[in-house]
Amino acid sequence: MAEHVALGIDIGGTNTAFGLVTQDGNVVFEDTVATTYYADPQDLVRHIYQSVRQSDYFDQVLGIGIGAPNGNAFTGNIEFAPNLTWKGIVPIASLFETQFHRPALLTNDANAAALGEHLFGCAKDLKDFVTITLGTGLGSGVFINGELIVGHQGIAGEYGHIRVIPEGRLCGCGRHGCLETYVSSTGVVRSIHELDRASRWQSPLIKLNKPTAIDVFKANEDGDLFAQEIIEFTAETLGSALADFAAFSNPQAYVLFGGIAQSGDSFARKVKYYLEKHCLKIYQDNIEIRVSHLHDKNAAVLGTAASLFWKAIKR
Q: Which domain holds residue 35?
């Protein structure tokens, strides 16, 4: 049995994953629940406590790391997250500390994924990189010179809310044209209905009652020309945005994480093509596109748990 473990919790707009992680990155217990099932965040906290309490490792838990959209690392609060059903300010770290009687740390969910990639995944050799999480929304975790950038308020890494199309699609944040409305899994679905009006291709996707991003990528594999059009549009929108972001952080690599990234190397190659096409000449051929190695291990869970050991590891 591990001498010590940390509880890592990744709160997403659709699902919440949690697991117990050793300091060397071994996940010894994990589970997933539907975030949307819990109208009160306290109920989610109780469910996770009951689940972890039944494991063989509960007494070895040192503390808790939490990744969440709009997670403020300084206050321990989730603050006005557009992709969560909980509105306003949620003192999530305090809720977990009270329930578990263990210290709890909160970070932005994309920052947690970046930590996981840096410690256990495909970014172990990198000091300057950006993790792009492609899920219900879109987040970014930024490493510069080996340091995770959290910003003045502790909530840096909201690249999904940089506006890429003036007066474009309405976003959950209340503004229009945000990147995540085009490139997240929900954005891909929105493209089915928006691009259908201008497309010359007939596609079974149009007839689906509740299509998903997975449906689009599967249709692409089956040779559906409309699905190919959607994926090309998505890749160009993301690649162009990453080209602009390079002018800010000058990364060695972008690491794509999430359901869309798991669709295979084809999408990553398309993003790379449009990144090179749109970026400044000084950055061309100097930025890699990597796909997460931790999809099957849950990089965000590893990252949130690892954050408890972060200072010790850096010494």
A: 5-115+297-314
H or E segment and range at residue 143: strand 138-144
User: For 165-189, what is the mean pLDDT?
Assistant: 95
Report pLDDT digits (tens) over 212-259.
999 999 998 899 999 999 999 999 999 999 999 999 999 999 999 887
Alpha carbon distance 140, 142 (integer Å):
6
List, in sequence order, every residue forming a beta bridge with 258; answer none if it has no partner: 134
Q: Give pLDDT tens digits for 11-42.
A: 988 899 999 999 888 889 999 999 999 999 99
CATH of the domain at 60: 3.30.420.40
| Alpha-carbon span 206 to 191, nearest angstrom | 11
Question: Are 192 and 254 in the same domain?
Answer: yes
In terms of C-beta distances under 8 Å and separation of at least 24 residues, what long-range contacts does 56-60 make, across chains too? 56/1, 56/29, 57/1, 57/2, 57/5, 57/20, 57/28, 57/29, 60/1, 60/2, 60/3, 60/4, 60/5, 60/20
* pLDDT for position 25: 84
> Which two tokens mark 126?
């990198």
pTM confidence score: 0.85
CA distance 227 to 231: 6
Residue written as token pair 């109780």:
46
Q: Are residues 233 and 157 in the same domain?
A: yes
